[in-house]
Amino acid sequence: MVARLKNNHKQPTNIRPFLKWAGNKYRIIDRVRKALPQGKCLIEPFAGSAAVFLNTDYERYIINDNNPDLINLYNLLKKEGITFIKKCRHYFTPKYNNEEQYYKLRKQFNETKDQYKRAMLFVYLNRHGYNGLCRYNLKGGYNVPFGRYKAPYFPEKEMLVFHEKAQNAEFVLSSFEEVIQSARKGDVIYCDPPYVPLSSSANFTSYSSGGFNIEKQQQLAELAKQTSAKGIPILISNHNTAFTRKAYDKANKITKFHVQRFISCNGKKRGTAGELLALFN
Ligand SMILES: C[S@@+](CC[C@H](N)C(=O)[O-])C[C@H]1O[C@@H](n2cnc3c(N)ncnc32)[C@H](O)[C@@H]1O
Prior knowledge:
It is built from 11 helices and 7 strands. The protein is an alpha/beta fold.
């Protein structure tokens, strides 16, 4: 459990997720870990690359996301381990690192009904596509352009670590509402929804088709109040804005801090963004 990590005085070595993921919490993992209450089972309704799952020590996990490609991949990696990893490695050679091959494989990904092939290609697209984005058009087609990386890294070690840790996890494809409502006493919930925009022109909401609007953010804040009233603690991450400070005003504790991150659309400009962690306990 988290307590074990806190009490053994050694700083745990942080584990990198094998996927690149917008808004991933690897960089602020120490803060998240410190803010999380103890419990038997950690529920993550917005898993993304699962940085928090990988870097905590609960007995059990329920890892949810509404992106079917992500959950399909996690379930396959959990079950198949090294066999699946070896098959993914096939696409990480110079032969497949060019525009022509990338668009050919992207087309195959969008057309195949074979979930095994789709999962392998999802790993390829994640590391060869532009900026590690995961974006779909309105018809659900993956539409991230080629990333032009010299030699994309194959995250073999990271995938193996994920496979081992996944034996204590259940991967669920559902909405955040359903997963939060299914929580029981003894569970702890960590919510990392798509960020609220920092300004009206900034838009970080398109992780999977469907988006995540202001009503959904409000609904999540409301659910957090109801869930903590049932004795189930819930921690939410988000940008620190006037909107989130108001939406989370019933939280028992709010921790505010700054993180350095890429904030422009072209991913080149760096800036600091105010973040917060709101604990409803
Ligand atoms: C900020 S990311 C989570 C990042 C994650 N904590 C990490 O470290 O990589 C938000 C995630 O929420 C998922 N998501 C968006 N809308 C959702 C919904 N309505 N229900 C469940 N998951 C949703 C997205 O697919 C995305 O993976």
